[in-house]
Amino acid sequence: MVKGTLKYNAISKKDNRFIINVKKCRVCNTYDCTKFVLDGSMELVGKETDVSRILDEIIPYKNLINDYGVAISGGEPTCQFTFLIELLKAIKYNGFHTAIETNASSPKLLELLKYLDFVICDLKHIDDKKHREQTGFTNKMVLKNIKRIAERKHPIKISKYANMFVKYGIQGIKT
Asked: How would DSSP label each residue in 38-99?
């Protein structure tokens, strides 16, 4: 399933049901991951797809996007890890540069590096307490992944706190 943006963890799944936390959903004000229907309720948007269909859509544009490549974002792409790794393998096989925009919370993130040319990390907050307030989760795995990626000298951009890394260096991250 390819889904829209899921900021603030507004949508979760429990017992094969989707739960929409409307308070969190309305914080983003974009409703990218939902659409309103006539009765005022919301439903998930997206479509089922597979790797070959995605390749069929992007290969005709290869010459146009060759300098830029294919960036995979979401929601959080690593939530669909098995699909994501197969997609990245296929995209790389077809000669595209690859990037991912991620919150870096997946313990499996480093497994993707051999198929990624660039990682864009959306660090919500460097302070664990503030990160938990914003996301409901600790940032320990996020920081651990950022540090490991940087130690491997793999290209990474930390979108919110890039200046902090320039000032303090990767050694300033406590994991």
From this structure: TTS-EEE-EE---HHHHHHHHGGGHHHHTTT-EEE-SS-GGGGHHHHHHHHHHHHHTT--EE
Residue 35 scores a pLDDT above 60: no
The SS3 of residue 156 is: strand
**Residue pLDDT, tens place only, 129-155:** 988 888 888 899 999 999 999 999 999
Considering only CA atoms, which of 116, 132, 37, 18 is closest in space to residue 75? 18
Cα gap 81→149, rounded to integer Å = 18
Task: Point out which residues pair with 13 in neighbouring strands.
Answer: 18
Domains for the chain: give ranges and CATH numbers: 2-47 (no CATH), 51-172 (3.20.20.70)
